[in-house]
Design brief:
mainly beta, Lipocalin, 1 helix, about 45% strand, globular
Length: about 150
C-alpha cells in the first residue's frame, strides 16, 4: 500500500513540475515595427518582383494591451508612391495599401485591402481584394525583414 501512495504522490508532483516548467511564448503579444525594413514586393499576373525599402511608423501599444496603428511608405519603380495604413493586433496586420499607379492586374483599384503577419524581424502582407467575377484576389505580396 505504501508504494502505491508514494507513486501517486510522486506522479502528482511530476505533473505539477511539468506544468510549472512549461515554456511561455517567446514572441511578445504585439511587436514593435517602427523603423526601416527591406524586402520584396511581388504583384501582377506576370509576377513582377521589386526590391523595396519601407519606412514604418507605429502609434499605440506595442505590448498587446490593444490595437496598434501602423503606417508605412515606400516607392516602387512600377507602382509609384505606396502607403500602408492599418492596425496590428498581436501579430496580425490588416489595413489598406494605396498605390499611385495601379498595375493592370489590380482591376482598376488603387486601394487594396490587405492582411498579414508581423514579428520582430519579418512582416508579410497579401492582398484580400477581390478582382473579378471569379473571386480572384488581386496579386499583391510584400515580404519585409530587418
Amino acid at each position: 500500500m505504501r508504494s502505491n501512495a508514494f507513486l501517486r504522490v510522486g506522479s502528482g508532483f511530476l505533473l505539477v513540475a511539468l506544468v510549472a516548467c512549461h515554456d511561455s511564448p517567446t514572441e511578445p503579444a504585439s511587436t514593435d515595427l517602427k523603423g526601416t525594413w527591406t524586402g520584396q514586393l511581388s504583384f501582377g499576373t506576370s509576377g513582377v518582383s521589386e526590391s523595396v525599402s519601407v519606412v514604418v511608423g507605429q502609434a499605440g501599444s506595442s505590448t498587446g494591451a490593444g490595437t496598434t496603428t501602423i503606417n508605412a511608405t515606400w516607392s516602387s519603380p512600377t507602382l509609384g508612391a505606396c502607403t500602408f495604413s492599418g492596425s496590428l493586433s498581436q501579430s496580425r496586420l490588416s489595413g489598406n495599401v494605396v498605390v499611385e499607379r495601379p498595375d493592370a492586374s489590380f482591376c482598376g483599384a488603387s486601394q487594396l485591402r490587405v492582411e498579414g503577419q508581423a514579428a520582430t524581424s519579418r512582416v508579410s502582407i497579401d492582398s484580400r481584394e477581390i478582382c473579378n467575377i471569379n473571386l480572384d484576389l488581386v496579386p499583391f505580396h510584400l515580404v519585409l525583414s530587418r
